[in-house]
Specification:
Radius of gyration: 18 Å
Number of strands: 8
Helix content: 25-40%
Mean pLDDT: 93
Strand content: 35-45%
Low-confidence stretches: none
Order of helices and strands: HEEHEHEEEEE
Number of helices: 3
Number of domains: 2
Structural class: alpha+beta
CATH superfamily of the largest domain: RimP-like superfamily, N-terminal
Strand order of the largest sheet: 7-6-5-4-8
Largest sheet: 5 strands, antiparallel
Distance between the termini: 45 Å
Length: 159
Amino acid sequence: MAKVDVISRVTVLAEQVISSLGMELVDLEYKREGREMVLRLFVDKEGGVNLDDCASVSRELSEVLDVEDVISEHYSLEVSSPGIDRPLKKVEDFQRFKGRLVKIRTFEPLPDDAGNKRKTFLGELKGIENGVVLVALKEGQNAAIPFEKVAKANLEFEF
């Protein structure tokens, strides 16, 4: 099975298992590290996840993956929290984390409300409206970033 197909199939199975445990799948990676493949899942829930949550996901998902036989080669399964710099992947994430400090990178330079073009936006997430991510930038400007132009977005930790 091609890597893209493996990722797609594992994502469906993982979302079913993880949601049944009251958590959400934040991100999934399947890549070669050294000599072996690593399937890495990042999970979260309201209030955050702990070691027992990660162990439960690992146990449950391992059983499902063994039965479904999705991955034919040897791999390691890792389950963890997304960390303090949690990625924002879904439209819902941009609403859920409204008011938090975010760093957004875009595929191409986009203007802020002062006309300054940039690819990196750092500021307070104001939400998402009609597919446009709204950010109050640290420098005082505002930015309206079309969701489809977001290459990468993460929460930023404030000291």
